Amino acid sequence: MSPFFVMSLILGLTFGQAASLCAPAEYTIHVEKQECAYCLAINTTICAGFCMTRDSNGKKLLLKSALSQNVCTYKEMLYRTALIPGCPHHTIPYYSYPVAVSCKCGKCNTDYSDCVRDRVRTNYCTKPQKLCNV
C-alpha cells in the first residue's frame, strides 16, 4: 500500500464523524385516540441528518470497528407529556413523547428509535386538530 493511501485512510477514519450533520430538528407529531374528540399536533425535536457511513467493500483491509452503518440518533433526550383534549372521563388523556436534547451518529437502538424509513405517510390527523407548543 502506498503511504498516501494509508494516510488518507487514517484521516478519513479519524475525521469522518466531523463531516456528519446530525442535530436536533423541529418535527410535528400528530396524536389521536379513538375515544377523544380531537387530534393533537405536538411540536417537538427529533434527531435528523447525515452520518458518515463506511462502505464494506474494503472489509478485508479494515478492522471490523472501522466498518459502520451509523444513523443519526439520540445522545440525550427527555420525555414530555401532553394532554389530549376532548377525552371522556374514563379515558387516559395523556400522551408522552421524546424530545431530542442532543444527537449523535451511532448504532440505531430499536428500544426508542424507528430505524427504518417508512415510505407511507401516517403522521396526520383524521379528527379536528389542536396545536400543542411545548
List the topology elements.
Layout: H1 3-15, E1 21-32, E2 39-50, E3 71-83, E4 94-106, E5 129-133
Parallel strand pairs: 2-5
Antiparallel strand pairs: 1-2, 3-4
Structure write-up:
- The chain is mainly beta.
- The protein contains one helix and five strands; from the N terminus they run αβββββ.
- The protein has a three-stranded mixed β-sheet, with no helix packed on it.
- The longest helix has 13 residues, at 3-15.
- The radius of gyration is 21 Å and the shape is elongated.
- One of its GO terms (molecular function) is hormone activity.
Briefly summarize what is shown.
The protein is mainly beta. It is built from one helix and five strands; from the N terminus they run αβββββ.
Which short descriptors sum up this protein?
134 residues; mainly beta; Cystine Knot Cytokines, subunit B; three-stranded mixed sheet; two-stranded antiparallel sheet; 1 helix; 5 strands; elongated
Net shape: elongated
Task: Estimate what percentage of residues fall within beta strands.
Answer: 35-45%
Q: What's the tally of helices? A: 1
* Number of β-strand runs: 5
User: At the first level of CATH, what is the class?
Assistant: Mainly Beta
Terminal Cα separation, in Å? Answer: 55 Å
Subunit structure: Heterodimer of a common alpha chain and a unique beta chain which confers biological specificity to thyrotropin, lutropin, follitropin and gonadotropin.
InterPro entries: Cystine-knot_cytokine (IPR029034), Glyco_hormone_CN (IPR006208), Gonadotropin_bsu (IPR001545), Gonadotropin_bsu_CS (IPR018245)
Signal peptide: 1-18
Pfam family, one: Cys_knot
